[in-house]
Amino acid sequence: MSVLAIREIMDRIPHRYPFLLVDRIVEHTTGQRVVAIKNVTMNEPFFQGHFPGAPVMPGVLIIEALAQAGAVLLLSDIPDRATKLVYFTGIDQARFRRPVVPGDQIRLTMEVLKLRSRTCKMRGVAEVDGELVAEAEIMSALVDRP
């Protein structure tokens, strides 16, 4: 599978507007790597208060976008994914290199470092126009939906 559109992404993860932060999957290697796109527009609700007159995407939402891309990777190959959730359980080595602003397109790359039956550690990189904007190691757990 190489490309997933928004409806296919929504079939894999439970996030919805205004918290769905992945617009397209452009690469997917089962159990190894995913590359996603997030188009940043002035219509994003967080820009009303972050910051008026100088809009900047919050760094925690860039990390969340990376985590959502990782969740798409983890849930894509699970047949009973409708009964599962991926919980964000930890973050290491998060760094923010430059602001993300309206009009930017973020390329989100997540690569699996360790994968076990119920836990995963991935390295994430977010780039705009080939320039690094954020990076982190993200840990998550696969759990049953309540």
Structural description of this entry:
With 146 residues, the chain is an alpha+beta fold. The chain has a single domain, classed as Thiol Ester Dehydrase, Chain A (Roll), CATH 3.10.129.10. The protein has two helices and six strands. Strands 1-2-4-5-6-3 form a six-stranded antiparallel beta sheet, covered by helices on one side. A hairpin with a 2-residue loop joins strand 5 and strand 6. The protein is globular, with a radius of gyration of 15 Å.
Which sheet architecture does the biggest sheet show? 6 strands, antiparallel
**End-to-end Cα distance:** 29 Å
Radius of gyration: 15 Å
Per CATH, the superfamily is Hotdog Thioesterase
Which residues form runs of ≥5 with pLDDT under 50?
none
Number of spatially distinct domains: 1
Estimate the helix proportion, in percent: 10-25%
CATH fold field value = Thiol Ester Dehydrase, Chain A
User: What is the CATH C-level name?
Assistant: Alpha Beta
What order do the helices and strands follow?
Answer: HEEHEEEE
